[in-house]
């Protein structure tokens, strides 16, 4: 997660935010490690073992599979390939299943055409007849929402492909709506359809979602990205589908509608984290309001200690170009400064011409932005809002982050069974990496969702002397940090362990010197 060999300071001596910003220098090298997780969408451009290995070595932490496309057979093959590529990786790689959700999409084109051109001012028929799903043309396209003619009316707008194409409804028939093309362009296959201001009567969890979720449980995925979550009920229904066998899978709620923003507090409480899915959100609410929703959702997740992901169009131009725009670089950096745990690449890696290059640029932007992040201010504000008294483990985590800042430690070494203490440490955004050492591979993979965590899977079995076993795991984490180049002999370290074997006993923090 934190590949780099640069040398730089990870501690700021500034006392105010403005003095911290005044002290930034473009000539300084970025900090040694990248703390922000990077999620990459896997698609035709990067689904082979060789490319996936390059992406893992470049810094991909979580591989995302978009279940709006593809068959179970194809996704099973991709999961197998990802695991093969990650076999000898220096860190575990998580796999996330992104549900289709209650979304509406267009169909495929006749004669296997990849796209058609929609011209401004012309008429187009949007059909809900299943016979048109694979036979669309430039004048007759398909939408997979049967009740479309019932919920729109003349004058309603239909947006396609993240709003790039817009249609105005002229009239409605039993199985189709007749529209005028307001803003045309090239329309590809299986593009998203949005109906802003229209009440859509789709279930929170569709029959396809249920099949996909059960498939994900069988395949052992680590994370579910739940699409179009409008309230906590959607999360509860997904948990019911996952059942006992899938109860350990993280559920990340994708907030991409006005209802989702309005009900964000209950969604954050019910879920394991949130994704700010700006594509559909920017159609459902005014585009100029998206940044407000992003900052608000990130702040609420930071206060709740839940991971938050920023997604959509982060390096969009790199689908076809080798370098991003300056605005895209600033967008990624500002998401990091807002406090995200992870950033995500979509089409850039799934179908782009430069998947590895896009990931490398994302990696470098995150490191630069983290150097400008004022950790002390963020830590103090989180402490101010933390409900008192805190429990044993929570108190230990706060003390560890505080000690890291005070003694200028270079890393936190944390022995974890369930990941709870690691998540608490990440919540307070220490300025250094948190190396978590765990015997649980699943926990190690899922911890990639949390900012600053460098998860290490410890493969050795337990030994009888518990204290010796603890010290061996601590040294294992130290050695990995030394191998990666951000721990050196004599460096101060913070070590967090339990006082006895098992989960729930973390209450010991030590300051040690790397040996």
Automatic annotation (TrEMBL):
Its cofactor is Mg(2+); K(+). The keyword Kinase applies. Its EC number is 2.7.1.40. It catalyses: pyruvate + ATP = phosphoenolpyruvate + ADP + H(+). GO terms for biological process: glycolytic process. Residues 34-358 form the Pyruvate kinase barrel domain. Pathway: Carbohydrate degradation; glycolysis; pyruvate from D-glyceraldehyde 3-phosphate: step 5/5. One of its GO terms (cellular component) is sarcomere. Pfam families: PK, PK_C. InterPro entries: Pyr_Knase, Pyrv/PenolPyrv_kinase-like_dom, Pyrv_kinase-like_dom_sf, Pyrv_Knase-like_insert_dom_sf, Pyrv_Knase_AS, Pyrv_Knase_brl, Pyrv_Knase_C, Pyrv_Knase_C_sf. GO terms for molecular function: ATP binding; kinase activity; magnesium ion binding; potassium ion binding; pyruvate kinase activity. The keyword Magnesium applies. Keywords: ATP-binding, Glycolysis, Kinase, Magnesium, Metal-binding, Nucleotide-binding, Potassium, Pyruvate, Transferase. Residues 395-512 form the Pyruvate kinase C-terminal domain. Belongs to the pyruvate kinase family. PANTHER family: PYRUVATE KINASE. NCBIfam families: PRK05826.1, PRK06354.1, pyruv_kin. Pyruvate kinase that catalyzes the conversion of phosphoenolpyruvate to pyruvate with the synthesis of ATP, and which plays a key role in glycolysis. Homotetramer. This is Pyruvate kinase. The gene is pyk-2.
């Amino acid at each position: 997660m934190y590949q780099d060999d640069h040398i730089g300071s990870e501690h700021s001596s500034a006392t105010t935010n403005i003095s911290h910003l005044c002290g930034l220098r473009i000539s300084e090298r970025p900090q040694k490690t990248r703390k922000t997780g990077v999620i990459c969408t896997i698609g035709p451009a990067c689904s082979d073992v060789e490319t996936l290995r390059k992406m893992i070595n470049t810094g991909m932490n979580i591989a995302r599979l978009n279940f709006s496309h593809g068959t179970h057979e194809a996704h099973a093959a991709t999961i197998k390939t990802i695991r093969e590529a990650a076999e000898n990786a220096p860190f575990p790689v998580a796999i996330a299943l992104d549900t289709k959700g209650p979304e509406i999409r267009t169909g495929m084109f006749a004669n296997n055409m990849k796209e058609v051109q929609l011209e401004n001012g012309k008429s187009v028929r949007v059909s809900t007849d299943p016979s048109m799903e694979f036979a669309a043309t430039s004048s007759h396209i398909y939408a997979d929402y049967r009740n479309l003619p019932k919920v729109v009316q003349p004058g309603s707008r239909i947006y396609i492909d993240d709003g790039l194409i817009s249609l105005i409804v002229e009239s409605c028939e039993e199985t189709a709506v007749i529209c005028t093309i307001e803003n045309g362009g090239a329309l590809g296959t299986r593009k998203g359809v949005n109906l802003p201001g229209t009440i859509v009567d789709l279930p929170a969890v569709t029959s396809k979602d249920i099949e996909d979720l059960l498939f994900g449980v069988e395949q052992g995925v680590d994370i579910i990205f739940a699409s179009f979550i409008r309230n906590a009920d959607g999360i509860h229904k997904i948990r019911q589908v996952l059942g006992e066998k899938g109860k350990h899978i993280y559920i990340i709620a994708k907030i991409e509608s006005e209802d989702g923003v309005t009900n964000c507090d209950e969604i954050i409480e019910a879920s394991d984290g949130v994704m700010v899915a700006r594509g559909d959100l920017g159609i459902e609410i005014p585009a100029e309001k998206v940044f407000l929703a992003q900052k608000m959702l990130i702040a609420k997740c930071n206060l709740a200690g839940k991971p938050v992901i920023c997604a959509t169009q982060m390096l969009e131009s790199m689908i076809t170009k080798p370098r991003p725009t300056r605005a895209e670089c600033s967008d990624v950096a500002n998401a990091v400064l807002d406090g995200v745990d992870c950033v995500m690449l979509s089409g850039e890696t799934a179908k782009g011409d430069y998947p590895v290059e896009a990931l490398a640029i994302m990696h470098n932007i995150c490191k630069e932005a983290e150097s400008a992040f004022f950790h002390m201010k963020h830590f103090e504000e989180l402490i101010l809002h933390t409900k008192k008294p805190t429990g044993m483990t929570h108190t230990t985590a706060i003390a560890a982050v505080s000690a890291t800042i005070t003694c200028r430690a270079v890393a936190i070494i944390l022995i974890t069974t369930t990941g709870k203490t690691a998540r608490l440490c990440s919540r307070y955004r220490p300025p250094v990496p948190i190396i978590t050492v765990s015997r649980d591979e699943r926990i190690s993979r899922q911890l990639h969702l949390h900012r600053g965590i460098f998860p290490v899977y410890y493969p050795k079995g337990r030994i009888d002397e518990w204290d010796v076993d603890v010290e061996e795991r601590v040294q294992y984490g130290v050695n990995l940090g030394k191998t990666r180049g951000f721990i050196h002999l004599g460096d101060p370290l913070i070590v967090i362990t339990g006082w006895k074997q098992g989960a729930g006993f973390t209450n010991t923090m030590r300051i040690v010197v790397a040996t």
